[in-house]
Amino acid sequence: MGKVRRMFPGGNTSEGFYSFHDNIIDENRNMLYILKGMPGGGKSSLMKYIGQKAIEKDYDVEFHHCPSDPESIDGVVIVQLNIALVDGTFPHIIDPVYPGLIDKLVDLGKFIDEKKIKEHKDEIFEAKANNRLAYRKAYAYFKGAKCIYDEIIEHNKNGVDFKRVNELTEGIIEEIYYGNSSWRPEDKFYPFTNRHLFSNANTPDGFVDYTYTILEEVKNIYYIEGEIGTGKSTLINRIKEEGIVRGYKMEVYHNATIPKKIESLFIKELNTYITSNKYGLKYPHKKIDLNQYFDKNIIDEKDYNMYELLIKTGLFSLEKARENHHILERCYRSSIDYHGVDRIKESLLEEILE
Question: What pTM value is reported for the model?
Answer without folding.
Answer: 0.95
